[in-house]
Structure formats: structure tokens, C-alpha cells
Amino acid sequence: MDALLHFLPQVWFVILALFLFLYVVLDGFDLGVGILSLTASSENRRTILMTSLGNIWDANETWLVLMGGALFGAFPLAYGTILNALYLPIFLMIFGLILRAVAFEFRENAENKRFWNVAFGSGSFLAALAQGFALGSVLTGIHTDVSGHYIGGLWDWLNWHSLLVSLTLIQAYVLIGSTYLIMRTAGSLQETHFKTAKLAAITTLIGAIAITATTPFISESARDRLFQVPFIYGFTLIPILGVLLIIALWKSLQKRKEIAPFVWTVLLFVLTFIGLGLLVFPYVIPPSITIYEAAASPSALVFMIVFIGFLIPIMLFYNIYNYVVFRGKVEVEHSEVTGLPQDA
């Protein structure tokens, strides 16, 4: 029984990490494209960007909903404490996601698209910004009492380190959004996103170095973990692999590859998640509440595993089916937009 009490929370920690990873990668390029739409030089280009998301963006956000439900069921204490601590960032994220969803649908039938264009891009930026603040706050640490209840203030999440994490996450979303658009566009528009991908790769790397260098100074638990054997070997290897992936990404952009940049970027996200997992585990509310303390009853965890075991393959199949069916370059008819040529 003791082994089961330790094993089940670990399984759910991995499942939640998987949900979060799938959301960040899939909705990450979605949000990145939304942010990039703010810089589109013409209505024609903006239409192409938004059309590339038309049949997939809503499915991407399903993983966020699933993660929230799984966190509530598997670690109810963490669900209540984290939502209490990050009330404002989560509210801003939801508001941003709703704003971009409404703008996406209304823009298609609007005669004057300018307002909805700004709303879509701003909603994407706000959602990404709020997610970064939430992540930064978790890395910094959430203040709780001995029972795991939040005892901090309303604005504890707002500090220079969480701002740094937030800005870096936005750059990472722009990077993966740019590499996604390289696959889905052609001509001068594709060339534009080769350039934005290079710029975002540089800014993301700078942000990642800054976060890596400053996190040990603002988080005692992170500092202890970073220099603890055997974790120190992993944390030494991860930055080296990250630099190698950045070099491979840069070379693929230089050679004008279409698929390779997206693959290298996804691998960068994988490496980042491995690092975060090693840094946080076994805490679900860093730096004080572990997954074992916050876990639901073993019967509830087993029941949810059975349910999730059926749901995950269905959702993965649906996502894969979407991407296979709607693969290829995005083309917009001349008459559908503003009269500009497609590569304007």
C-alpha cells in the first residue's frame, strides 16, 4: 500500500506534465501566430495567418481544460492553492483566450476587420503574458501555511523574475509560431517568418540564459536542487543540449528548411520541460507541498487513470487527424481579402 501511495501521485505528476506540454506546444504556436498577426503588413497576410489556424486552434486549447480538470481531481489541494495564488494571472489568461476566440469568429464576417484584428492579436499576447507570470510565480515559490493553503498577497506573482519568464515565454511562442508558419506559407510571407524565427531564437536564448542564471538566486529550493547530486549532472547537460538544439535550429533556418525548424523548436520545448520537471519534482506547490501531500485518495486516482486512459488516445487521434487532413500550404483567394496579391 505504501508503494502504491507513492506510485500513483508520481503517475499523475507525469500525466499532468504531459497535458501541460501538449498544451504549451500546440496552443503555443497558436498564440505565437496570433502575436505575429499584430505585425502583419497587409490584410491579405493577416488572413493567411488566421486561416492557417482555422481548423485546429480550438482543439489545441482542449488540453488546457483537461489539465485543469485533472489537477482538480488528482491534487485538489494544489488546485485550490494555485488558483488562489494566481487568481489574477489566470483570470487574465482566460480573458485573453476568450477575447481571441470571439475576435477569430467575428472577424470573418466583419466589414471593418481592424478592431477584431487587434482584439485577436492582443488576446493572444495577453494570454501568453499571463501564462508566463503564472510560470514565473511557481518557479519563485508560492507562500503557504503548514496545511498547504495560500497565505501570500494578491500581487505576489508580480515581480521582476516572473516578468522575465513571461517575456521569454512570449518569445518562445513567437519562435514556434514562426516555424509553424514556415511550414504553412510560401513566397515572401514565408521569407518574413524565416526572419522572425531567427530573431525569436536569439531573444528566446537570451531570456533562457537570464532565467537559468537568476533562478538560483531568487529560489532557495531551486538552488538546493540545482547543486544536489545526481541532479547537478542533468542540469549541467540540459544547457549544453539546449545550445546544440539552438545551433541546429539556426542552421535549418539558414538552409531554408521548412519542417526541420519546427521539429528543433519542439525539441527545445521538450528539453525545457524536462528541466522544469527535474527542478520542481516532487513538489506540486513549490517549495513546500509535495505531490504526496496534495494527492487525492488512491481510489480516486485509480478511477481517474482508467478514465484518462481511454480519453488520451482519443484526443491524440483527433489532434493528429486534424493536422493530417489540414496539412499543406495555406492559400487565400484574391477575392476573399483586400485585393492585394497573395504574396503582398
Task: Please explain how this structure is put together.
The longest helix is centred in the first third of the chain and has 36 residues. The protein is mostly helical. It has a two-stranded antiparallel ribbon. Helix content is 76%, strand content 1%. β1 and β2 form a beta hairpin. The C terminus is likely disordered. The chain has 14 helices and two strands; from the N terminus they run ααααααααααααββαα.
Summarize the structure.
The chain is an all-alpha fold and 344 residues long. Helix content is 76%, strand content 1%.
Could you list some keywords that capture this structure?
mainly alpha, 2 strands, 344 residues
Write the layout of secondary structure elements.
Layout: H1 2-37, H2 43-51, H3 57-60, H4 62-74, H5 76-85, H6 87-109, H7 114-140, H8 160-184, H9 187-218, H10 220-226, H11 231-254, H12 260-280, E1 283-285, E2 289-290, H13 291-294, H14 298-325
Antiparallel strand pairs: 1-2
Helix pairs in contact: 1-2, 1-4, 1-7, 1-8, 1-12, 1-14, 4-5, 6-7, 7-8, 8-9, 8-12, 9-10, 9-11, 11-12
> Mean of the pLDDT scores?
86
- Give the N-terminus to C-terminus distance in angstroms: 65 Å
Class from helix and strand fractions: mainly alpha
Beta content comes to under 5%
* Helicity level: over 70%
Radius of gyration from CA coordinates: 21 Å
* Bulk shape: globular
What's the arrangement of strands in the largest beta sheet? 1-2
The count of β-strands is 2
Contiguous low-pLDDT stretches (5 residues minimum) are: 334-344
Largest sheet: 2 strands, antiparallel
Helix segment count?
A: 14
Helix-strand string? HHHHHHHHHHHHEEHH
